[in-house]
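The protein record filed here:
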Amino acid sequence: MEDSSPDFQSSIQQSLQDIALQMGKPLNEVAAEHLYQDARALLNHVPHEPLTVARVAGTLLVYQVQNTEPDELEWFKAQVQQCSSDEEIEELIESLHRTDAL
């Protein structure tokens, strides 16, 4: 599915800014665009749905806002790049939110 339309991109970027504001860490347009582009770059090796771009960008935002250790961010990026489908990427993101995985 095509996810590079200007409407889709601006919608994701606005959502990232809204989420960041709710988290008490406002995000400017340039930073939101950078997160969106980072997410697209991480997904360029697999066909993916637009929602997957949004979820990866949102996960990158959370890592950034929470000042996560650089090693953890690099781990996440490496895991995404090892996935062979957007389904696997979705499962990876879901697993990050499961407390029972510990």
Remarks:
- DSSP finds five helices and no strands in the chain.
